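Good morning C.,

I know you're traveling, so I'll keep this short. The sequence:
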Amino acid sequence: MSNTSANVERKLISSKCEARGRVYIIDLLQFTNGCFANISEDQNGKMGAITVSIKTGERATSSSLIPESKGSIFAGMIGELLADKLHGIAVVSLYLREELDTDSMKTLINEVRKLLKKD
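The tokens, ready to paste straight into the viewer:
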């Protein structure tokens, strides 16, 4: 087995974001056909509910693999945004301590968009 890393295209970009006194860590691991995103309301970064989104044709659709009562719709929104922008598959892990309010959702969506522009 070879352990070379020739022509491997992936990139990890991270951000720390604060919204309404709560701190979130956002990690995006990008591949040529999509990404893995982890959004965690924890300084150490934790895995949470898992949602998979895929762009097919003109639309992106989502499915929860590991649902959670807090933020499952938001995880789908983030996944569909990523799948659409990256023209592929997005796997989103979302760990929250409590429900998100609308302003926090907007802040996190804008932060994810900023990370995508760092390409």
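Safe travels,
E.
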